[in-house]
Amino acid sequence: MVKTIDTITRTTAIIGNSKAIKSLKTVLTIFLAFITLFGVIGFSLFIFEEASQTVMFSMWQSIPAKRWDITMDGIDLMKDINKSGISINTTLGRINPLSYASYKAFHKATDHYIKALSARVFANEPTLFIGKKVSFTFTPKSVKHQEDGKYLLTNGRIHVILASRPSGNSVKATGTLQQVGSTLLVDTTK
Residue 50 to residues 41, 72, 128: CA-CA distances in angstroms? Predict the structure, then answer.
């Protein structure tokens, strides 16, 4: 019995002092550090993804209720979450190319969802965008040439000012939405 323990102890000591084993331990330690780092970064990005999806699911409840204010709060929250996720993926996510590519695609898709949902909110409750830059397709009911040379387009609800007469039935309008009295106005010349 004593001989077996001595043999095991001696074998363990020989293996423990082997250069190959020490090199293997170093390689495994470095490998474990990288795997841990991949996991920490990947898990953080996963939590950002889950947070975005939770906000998305909550907005699915506010839309049928026509609670555009709650939906807009969700859009703003989703923008913040996505911005943080993009920041982490861009700075740290590149060490894991597969995860980086996947989360880059997720963040692009989230940006598109935000853009599409913002268009829906704008169509239903444009007053929530007062003071914000908006971009939309505008179909006027009337076009009026003003004294200052600009053109005022109206559709009853929103007014758009353009520098030149529109050539088609619809125009792409981009500018900051303002409220002037009871009128919502986008001046594309500013």
Answer: 14, 19, 26
Return d(Cα 134, Cα 187) in angstroms, integer: 11
Give 93-106 pLDDT, tens digit per residue.
988 888 999 999 99
Distance between CA 83 and CA 80 in Å, rounded?
Answer: 5
Q: Are 99 and 106 in contact (CB under 8 A)?
A: no
Q: Which residue has the higher pLDDT, 7 or 109?
A: 109
Asked if 88 and 96 touch (Cβ cutoff 8 Å), the reply is no
Q: Which of 185, 162, 163, 188 is nearest to 175 (CA)?
A: 188
Q: In what order do the strands lie in the sheet with 183-187?
A: 133-138, 171-180, 183-187, 158-162, 151-154, 142-145
Closest to 57 measured CA to CA, from 73, 38, 74:
74
In order of 9, 10, 49, 52, the CA distances from 4 in angstroms are 9, 10, 56, 60
Tokens of 25: 């331990």
Bridge partner residues of 134 (DSSP): 175
Sorted by where each begins, the domain ranges of the chain are 2-126, 133-187
Query: Three-class SS of residue 187?
Result: strand
Q: What are the start-end ranges of the H helices in the chain? A: 2-16, 19-62, 68-91, 97-124
